């Protein structure tokens, strides 16, 4: 490798289409500006965690209002091309995603309803067993249920991306097998990096990659090993994962949580499935090198410093998500 | 006028694009076949009368299922061109419409939500005063309310057609004035034909036409003067209305109610706003010359016999609805 081959990180970051596999911010104009400052052109924005059908409908409706109010700064994306367009225009493309299948209730028909409303990604379970399958925190993972198989088939039919980040390993393997389309882990790391229920054993990572899917390496302190983990350690993990499952299957999913108070992290952890206050929660400290979306250029620095070539860095930063979205989405309408 | 100018009704009916301004059937494959037999290419199908947000979402979801199951026979239409396409293909284009604003609840943002789901037409009120305005049966019509003005503005913005059929006269005149887009009366007749609260005084008919809107003359026995009214009387009414408000402003809205039992007509009349059984209801008898969608060719016969020229007959049968839809709809997405 000659000096000529070593990408200049700042130029590379500016040129690349940067896509974040998941953020769950308290969204506002300021947060969109943070994304733009960080050079992020596309993001999977969480529109439901525990919410049911009606409440999620209101959240989606509010996104339409935001898209009107901040039209100069962002747009709602339904395709990978919408993200490419946002990059060209210097705007941020927000793709609506669920971290749960709770908005579908027990009605598989609502997959198409929310698809038509612009929702492109849904995680099969959040932090507990649900009607679709087992979560990563569940001592007994049911596997993908009968209803879960219908949800997977319907998501395949309408072109909605299946996300396994918080999903239990048994259900995840079932889903990879059941799905005719590639699936994603939008925001998790390998358990060989940090052994945490939210991270994924090699078997699951490999299954996702072999099915044509993508794994978003995650910056959330809990799955990163805490705020003390170095950028070099994170990027060395990315590099090893690239070696293990292939450069086109690795991406980023920061799990940014901008502007929430501690009440929100307790909501995320406890929802209404257990009493508030039973397990108190506060937000963890983020590493000094990644405080929020504005710090994405540093990640590019780190990936280059870790010795990844330009093509791989571009893949990890965004092209791999775009390729997956091109594969999976059908433009928002059932075939 | 020479013999050459008198259209041949059967040929005319086959050639024309026939669009029905409103049907509220218990939909099934058999009913779609009745429409096809009757040469109907497009229909505004009622997807809500009293139902709220969640229940209406399920109705819309079920329409998506029907569109899959009966794809050979029908399609869901979002534009006038979808209806023209259905005509070319020998299928029936179903356009989803509401006979109430109840699915929006008290949240004007849900107009865009349902617009994105394919709903193209909404009547501002059904049979009682609601948050938007007064119904035609209300002794005191509030006029278009503050919320109602926001609903009208939002319907204008997203391209949803405002229907005034069951709406009170004061609210109707307010809505015509407030709307920047033409509006419709999808299924009512003039009060000079039958003096019934569901029919419209000349002032309202004129206001709708002057705003570029369309009035769908209605075959429902209650507003037709009963089953004894003759086809010639109905068609003479159409002709007089054409003379009064202009040929491009008159169309048809049969209000067909196929395959429901009497429980449904009581639901329509009483919803849950008064106790069931308080005002018992049974379906009225339809005139012998119009029992259902299969009898549309007879209406064409009658319009020709009433002396309307071919251009006017084509307008009344469907072109006037298509023109209005072209004017009002924006292809299902907010600008």
From TrEMBL, chains A, B:
<dbReference type="GO" id="GO:0070573">
    <property type="term" value="F:metallodipeptidase activity"/>
</dbReference>
<dbReference type="GO" id="GO:0006508">
    <property type="term" value="P:proteolysis"/>
</dbReference>
<protein>
    <submittedName>
        <fullName>Membrane dipeptidase</fullName>
        <ecNumber>3.4.13.19</ecNumber>
    </submittedName>
</protein>
<keyword id="KW-0378">Hydrolase</keyword>
<dbReference type="InterPro" id="IPR032466">
    <property type="entry name" value="Metal_Hydrolase"/>
</dbReference>
<dbReference type="Pfam" id="PF01244">
    <property type="entry name" value="Peptidase_M19"/>
</dbReference>
<keyword id="KW-0224">Dipeptidase</keyword>
<keyword id="KW-0645">Protease</keyword>
<dbReference type="InterPro" id="IPR008257">
    <property type="entry name" value="Pept_M19"/>
</dbReference>
């Amino acid at each position: 490798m000659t000096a000529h081959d070593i990408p200049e990180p700042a130029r590379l970051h500016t040129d690349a289409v940067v896509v974040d596999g998941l953020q769950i911010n308290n969204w506002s104009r300021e947060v969109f500006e943070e994304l733009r400052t960080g050079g992020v052109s596309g993001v999977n924005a969480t529109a439901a965690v525990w919410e049911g059908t009606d409440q999620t409908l209101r959240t989606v409706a509010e996104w339409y209002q935001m898209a009107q109010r901040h039209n100069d700064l962002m747009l709602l994306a339904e395709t990978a091309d919408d993200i490419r367009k946002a990059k060209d225009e210097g705007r941020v493309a927000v793709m609506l995603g669920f971290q749960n299948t709770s908005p579908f209730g027990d009605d598989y028909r609502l997959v198409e309803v929310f698809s038509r409303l612009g929702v492109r990604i849904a995680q099969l379970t959040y932090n507990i067993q649900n009607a679709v399958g087992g979560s990563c925190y569940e001592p007994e993972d049911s596997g993908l249920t009968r209803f879960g198989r219908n949800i997977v088939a319907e998501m395949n039919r309408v072109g909605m991306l299946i996300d396994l980040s918080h999903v239990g390993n048994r259900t995840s393997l079932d889903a990879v097998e059941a799905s005719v389309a590639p699936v994603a882990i939008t925001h998790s790391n390998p358990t060989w990096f940090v052994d945490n229920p939210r991270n994924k054993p090699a078997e699951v990572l490999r299954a996702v990659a072999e099915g044509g899917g993508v794994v978003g390496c995650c910056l959330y302190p809990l799955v990163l090993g805490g705020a003390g983990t170095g950028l070099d350690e994170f990027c060395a993990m990315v590099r090893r994962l690239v070696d293990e499952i292939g450069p086109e299957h690795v991406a980023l999913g920061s799990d940014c949580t901008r502007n929430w108070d501690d009440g929100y992290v307790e909501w995320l952890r406890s929802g209404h499935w257990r009493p508030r206050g039973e397990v108190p929660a506060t937000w963890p400290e983020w590493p000094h090198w990644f405080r929020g979306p504005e710090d994405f250029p540093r990640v590019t620095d780190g990936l280059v410093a870790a010795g990844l070539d330009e093509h791989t860095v571009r893949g990890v930063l965004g092209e791999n998500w775009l390729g997956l979205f091109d594969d999976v989405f059908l433009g928002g309408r059932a075939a």
